[in-house]
Amino acid sequence: MRLKQLFVLITSLVLVLSASSVYADQKKTIVVPTDSDTKPFTYKENGKFKGYDIDVVKAIFKDSKRYKVTFKTVSFSSILTGVDAGRYQLAANDFNYNEERAEKYLFSEPISKSNYAIAAKKGTSFDSLEAVSGKSVEVYSGSNYAQILENWNEKHSDKKPIAIRYVANTVTLPQRLQNIENGKVDFLIYDAISLKTVIADQGLSLDVTDVEDKLGTYKDGLEYLLLPKDEEGETLQTYVNKRIKTLQENGTLSKLSQKHFGGDFSTTSDKQ
After folding, report:
1. Which domains does the chain have, with CATH numbers?
2. CA neighbor of 117 nearest in space, from 143, 145, 98, 141
3. Tens of pLDDT, residues 214-244
4. 8 A C-beta contact, residue 5 and residue 12
5. 149: phi > 0 → left, psi -120 to 50 → alpha, else beta; which?
6. What pTM, to 2 d.p., does this model score?
7. Angle at the Cα of 34 (from 187 to 239), degrees rounded to 5?
8. How far apart are CA 58 and CA 48, in angstroms?
9. What distance in Å separates the CA atoms of residue 79 and residue 224, rounded to the nearest whole number?
């Protein structure tokens, strides 16, 4: 009798473990591309993915019964083209909102809020785009910052244009900041959090000044995760937004912001 009971117990355990294994295999893998070069949002340390965006995505999918997540390092220009091609399901790389992106991609609820700032040589303070009229800058083609500068030049044809130099995505943020210190370019516009973090890490002699201009819309400075604009993207967006709301309410986003930014840059809404 005992032998029979033991047999039934072992058989039941095997079935449970097998079912768990099958269930795990049925989870949909969410591939998240990142350039791993936008510290403190996303970077690599000793071969491991680090940063605010990385930790937020991990928290979103923690204990999920439907999804499992994996990260992949790609060039910045390959992130959204990979989303277009269906290779990636969720993009995380300190993405801001703009109308051009909104036509092609779905946006999550915002996960942080920073502000635009300009880095320049020590003792130099540029607090507006008009102040950098005629000055040189390096940007990635297609980036939010490139669009801001291009729009300013177009709207202010009566002034000296900002000299926009498009650089390859392999030219890192630290390298572009080093080019300011070396006198190769005059300034760099970026989010204040990243500029201050990298300048401190690299020991560069540069000043960072907040931009006083209102650039774009009320969504300026907000950071989002991007998803493909299709049925699967909409389903994932619903899940992601629900989890972001939970992380906002339980204080997780605030804690992660304190950890990576040294302050609370989390946000609760992108509504006016």
Report:
1. 28-112+221-261 (3.40.190.10), 116-210 (3.40.190.10)
2. 145
3. 776 678 789 999 999 999 999 999 999 999 9
4. no
5. alpha
6. 0.73
7. 120
8. 13
9. 14
